[in-house]
Amino acid sequence: MEGRRELLKTLLGSIFMSSIPYQALARKRAVIYRIRYSNTTDRTRLVLDCKGEVDRKNIKEHLSGKVLWLDIRNTGAVRKLTRRIKSPLVSEVKVIPITSSRTKVKVTFKESHKFKIFGLRSCGSKPFRIVIDVFPEFVPISCQVRKFPKRIVVLDPGHGGKDPGAVWPPRSKHPKIREKDITLSIALKVRKYLRKSPDIKVVMTRTRDTYVPLLKRAEIAAKSCADAFVSIHADSMPNYPQWSGVTVFKASPSLFAKAQRTAKEVAKRVKLCSDVMCWSISPLLINMATTVTFAESSRLARYIVDNLKAQVNDDLINGIKDMHRNIVVLKTPGRPAVLIESGFLTNSLDRRRLTKRWYQEEIAKGIARGIEEYLNSLNKVAFVR
Ligand SMILES: [Zn+2]
């Protein structure tokens, strides 16, 4: 009898352990011992490495302005940990031990952001991790009740500062031509033309030779409640020196489909360890764009291309193309966005033209008129954001 009972206990135990081992392990006190972080184009990931597992129900979170507090029970910390975070979204993370089995975590955001918390099981050499993903607030509610009478456009001169973009000669340490200078020069000229219109407010992602991370640019667009976002670049195609001219890119629907899969990606990436993701809250909140944005981005691109053709020699305008690369600035939901490649540094004619003031003026005039016509059209058509 005793033997059978033992066997039954063992059997039950093994079934219990194999189906929900996490809950069984979580009873032991965990200890947070390290803060790590990483940045990608559309989020900042904060990671708290733990010895032992942390049960989701032991974490209470509280967002107060720009500070996110986690109060974690049954979890200690090796000592007080502080980490400054180099990110456009987060400035600091602190792990503060309250008692040996209670810890507070203070995450200081730069603005109020959306976040998602989940736990990752230890896998190979990786310990158990509490992960806090922070996303920029792409569509502030204030935009929906905006009473601002002007239409707003964000001009985004590509690259800047430590990031020169494409250079000529290629890979040169002291290049004669840098994409970042051309983009800024054209964008400032576009602003000059748009400023003549009293109904348009221009916001720039940079006005000097400074480095602005992509996420920051997308955030500037969101915060300013922009009606349109226009990013200006110059291309480089070393293998196709014959390629030349201006191309206007808009986001393709496939790009958005890709972004929508982001939530599932986390789980997929850690597939090697089965059942790795043990809990998660606030499911991915970023509301991906509706079809309205595609239609509006196409309209914006069309206005710009038509005006560029009127301004610059027709042959120099390649027209509208779908952007398939994952460009964060084209993904801002609810906001028509285009990326203009103003020419190819790898093409000798384009190279010469792009550095000339008169050519930059022509292109800028075309872009500005396109933007202006588009923004004016918004007052005529029903546009649901
Ligand atoms: Zn570029």
UniProtKB/TrEMBL annotation:
Xref: SMART domains: Ami_3 (SM00646)
EC number: 3.5.1.28
UniProt keyword annotation of Hydrolase present: yes
Top-level taxonomic group: Bacteria
Catalysed reactions, semicolon-separated: Hydrolyzes the link between N-acetylmuramoyl residues and L-amino acid residues in certain cell-wall glycopeptides
MurNAc-LAA domain ranges (all copies): 218-372
Molecular function terms, GO-annotated: N-acetylmuramoyl-L-alanine amidase activity
One family name in Pfam for this protein: Amidase_3
Record key words, sorted: Hydrolase
GO process annotations (BP): peptidoglycan catabolic process
GO cellular component, one term: outer membrane-bounded periplasmic space
CDD domains per UniProt: MurNAc-LAA
Protein name, per record: N-acetylmuramoyl-L-alanine amidase
